Amino acid sequence: MKKALTIVLLLLIMPVLYGFGAFMDEQQWVTWGNKALTESYDPSGEANITKWEIMLTTDHFIRLRKTYQQRNQEYYSFNIKRLNSLNYLPGNEVTDTLQVQTQTDDIIIQTYGDPMGDLDSMATTLNIPVKKLVPGRLDSLKQALSFLKQKGL
User: Fold this and answer.
1) Other CB atoms closer than 10 Å to residue 98's CB: what's the count?
2) Which conformational region is residue 72 in: left (phi greater than 0), alpha (psi within -120 to 50 degrees), or beta?
3) Cα separation of 64 and 41, whole Å?
């Protein structure tokens, strides 16, 4: 009886110790990353946004497109293998910031329909406004990006 109880306890504890990462394949991590990014993104902190799209692609890019009331757009894109750090910065009582930093100027920034002209530039940091994230969701997002970064190398 004692041996059976020990085995059952070990079987229950193993998934906790090893995380659910061992049970997820690449496509499942991409799907989870997309869900976490989409549900967490908070456009309310940015004025005049009428449409937005954030996605983690199967070729390991994070892409963010914002469309404003004046129909101008901003587009951000970078490959996860260039990810250097992912930081969670506290903001106000509703919105925080997910700060993405790459190794060098690896984040592509493009603007379309801007009255000052279409611009292409590069950056090292991208600040993504997010709703308050529980630590578990933030950790699993970091785990997903880490897994995909290793897969891309």
Assistant:
1) 20
2) beta
3) 10
Tokens for 149, please give them: 């970064």
Mean pLDDT by 10 residues, the chain (153 residues): 59 52 82 94 87 94 94 94 93 87 94 84 94 88 92 71
CA dihedral 37, 79, 96, 89 (to 10 degrees): 140
Rounded-to-integer distance, Cα 66 and Cα 46, Å: 10
Residue closest to 51 by CA, chosen among 69, 33, 39: 69
Q: Which of 74, 77, 76, 75 has its CA nearest to residue 60?
A: 77
